[in-house]
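Deliverable D2.4 — example input (structure tokens):
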């Protein structure tokens, strides 16, 4: 797993980009963003590759 590549994707998601992104695990253009909300505010970002199921979760 490439932590630097995942960190780049996390930063871009936090800046408002909506993807999709290229997966650092399988190189497929299939990483999608999910967000968890609490009281109307994003509290967590989940990034998941729809091709290989690689996933990272980061606080908002």
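Example output (designed residues):
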């Amino acid at each position: 797993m490439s932590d630097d590549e995942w960190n780049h994707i996390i930063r871009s998601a936090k800046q408002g980009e909506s993807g999709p992104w290229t997966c650092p695990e399988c190189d497929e253009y299939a990483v999608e963003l999910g967000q968890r909300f609490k009281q109307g505010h994003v509290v967590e970002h989940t990034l998941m590759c729809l091709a290989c199921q690689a996933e990272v979760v980061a606080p908002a």
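The CA atoms of residues 10 and 54 lie 14 Å apart.
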